[in-house]
Amino acid sequence: MVIRPPALILPLNLFLACCLFVGCGQSENTALNEGSPEDAFFNELLEQPQEASATGKSTAQQQQQPKIRLGRPQAAPEAVPSESAAQIQQVAANTDIFRRPQGERLQLNLQVGDRFPLIKTVRQGLIQESSSNPLAAETALQLTLAITVEEVSADGIQLGVRYSRVIYEHDIDGRRLRYDSMKQQDNVPWEAIPYAGMINNGFSFRLNPDNTIQDLIGYKEFLERCVARVPMERRETLLSELSNRFGDDGVANFIDDSIGLLPYDGTVDTENAAMVMQGDIWTRERRLMHPIPVYLKSTCTLTDIDSETARIEITGRIASGEATSMDGNGRLRVSSGRSLGHCIVDRRTGLPTEVELTRHLTIQASTADGEAVTQRKTVLTTIRTFPESAAQTVQN
Residue 81: inside a domain, yes or no? Predict the structure, then answer.
């Protein structure tokens, strides 16, 4: 439900200071020597979360209607004064206010053929605090893609994704790599092969009315095309790595970081499910499976809305968790995590046109021989969307 605060509330900055949210990422780099500390470190840096679910249902504050107490008179009723009748009318009018939809609708408003180019950038930094094996690494991934509306129906929207450019770079303790798909068609580094296969490649997915993923269409074939240039004897291994690196959550992360931030109140009828007012609050919660199973909860606050744009502030935190590492040679414990960001929504299309999220994660890693290290991870995600209507696309 969407929670609607009373007229007298704490200042927004005090509320936001009490809320935290987090996210993390995963991928693997096979270019490093197998079994080395740097290899394990780099794999941890690039891990993308695998989601068991991506829910986005909102919650609404129950509002009490005025109670009118009826009684049976013991004697002949007296004439009701005119002012009492006016009071009754006022109570009825106030009661009707509770019943009528309030606020403005904030939801997707797309038509078949609409197209919106998008640039998503993810910058990750990882510092390992260890007296014997300190390490530092940074990665940056920039994806340029276009999303096209393929189908619109009462039970959801089908969108098609097609990638046009990938820029990937990393600096692992001084070892640098940069790949730009527009400049390097040949001699692609091994670490960048999956990204190179994304160019002019894509898939489709369907969204539920609550902006969660209903179905993926052609995603397996998309992954297979990504590794089509890899020798057959290595293709199966890389395909497995690619699935772990992107996974279904690769799509879910894009949705959760953009369209999935839109409000939806599943406790009311669909006509009013996206009705909001400035100051409304809703939450998102999902389970991340990697690097270890943890629950991620974010709080969204509508801080501003007008006829052109709406601004959503996002805060939240990730619950602690502990499990055996993916290689089985130690344990990982997420001790704390938080996030802070914002999202600007275009009211005409309902699309988030600007998203910026900064996430911080503290991980305690222990090896099989008992050595323990602390890793601090920061992930900065930015998304820029440029909506185009079907009419604009035809004119261009």
Answer: no
